[in-house]
Every structure is written in C-alpha cells, then in structure tokens.
Design brief:
Blueprint (H helix, E strand, L loop, with lengths): L1 H27 L2 H15 L6 H14 L6 H15 L3 H14 L4 H9 L4 H9 L3 H9 L5 H12 L8 H5 L3 H35 L1
Helix pairs in contact: 1-2, 1-3, 1-11, 2-3, 2-4, 3-4, 3-5, 5-6, 5-9, 7-9
Length: 210
Amino acid sequence: LAIVGSARFIFVQTAELQTQRTALKQLTGSVEDANRIIKELQAFGNVTPFTSSELIEQAKRLKAFGFETETLVDMVKRLSDVAGATGADLSGISTAFGQILAKGKLQREEELQLLERGVDITSELKRITGLQGQEFETAMRKGQIGAELVLQALKNLTNEGGVFFGGATAQSETLNGQVSTLIDNIQTLARVIGGALTPALMGALETANK
C-alpha cells in the first residue's frame, strides 16, 4: 500500500507539472518562456511559505488577466510579499490586481477586496496622486485612478523600504513556512522521479488506451 501510495503521489505531481507547463506554453506562446517561469518560481518557492505549484497557478491567473509575459515572475513575487506580510490568501490578492488590470482602473469593488485582506493600496495611491478624501473618491469614481498607477503603488510598497518588502521570505522562517518548504521539496522530488519515469509511463498508458 505504501508503494502504491507513493507511486500515485509521484504520478499526480508529475502530471500536474505537465499540465501547468502546457497551460503556460499556450498562454505565453513560448516553450522557453513557460520553462523559464516555472524554473524561477520553483526557486522562489524554496525560500517562501508558498509552494511552487501555487506560485505557478498565480502566474497562469495573471497572464489570463492580461499581464505581460516578461512581468509575470516579478508580479508573482511582489504579490507573494504582500500575501506574506498580511497573512492573506495569495489567490484573492492576485485576482484583485488582475481585475484592476483587466478593467484598466481601480474601482471601489477591488479596493474593498484588497482592504479586506489587509492591503492598503489606497494610502500609497493618495500619496502618488496628491489627492485626498473626497477628491480621491471622485477621481476613482470617474475612472481616473488607472491600472498603471495601482501597479506603481504596488511596486513602491514591495520595493526595499516599502511596508511589504520581503514579506514572503520573512514568513519562510516561521513554522508554517518550514512545513510549506518541506511539502514543496517532497513534491519537487516526486516530480524529478516522475520525470525520469515519464517515458515508461506514457508508453504503458498509450498501450492501455489502444
């Protein structure tokens, strides 16, 4: 039973990585870009409380929302710092920023989604624009707080000296972070074994399907 369970785990992890690689290839239009994104996020996952699989899923999500391929890894890292610093779910934060980019502007809905997760992007936007109180609310209602301004605010908050800088790596030193790293390492090992066994598995499955 232990051998069967291990074999199943290896198969699932290998298949998941293949699915993610194929999806990124389709979204980016490049095998090289897909492999680069996966490699960089796997390395980042080793020093954060997030698994590489989770980070790759966020890269796919952001690409679907319209982020440029060249910015995906940087954006995932920045959003991971935000999630690590606030303790909020990475998926929800990624979705909020993705919606802002897709709409091209910040609206009350996304602002509240971020505030509910402890992400105060509004204060930094007010500092950048010089608008306060009702002036800022009016500008946002008129669609004048564009996505570019929001992304600039995110960069300011996650750059060195920003309130969210290094949030992900700081969490990696906690108990939950260490457990996450262990899980990620086990999954990585399973994928390495699965990669070596893939030709034999594919041959057996093709024969079975025929």
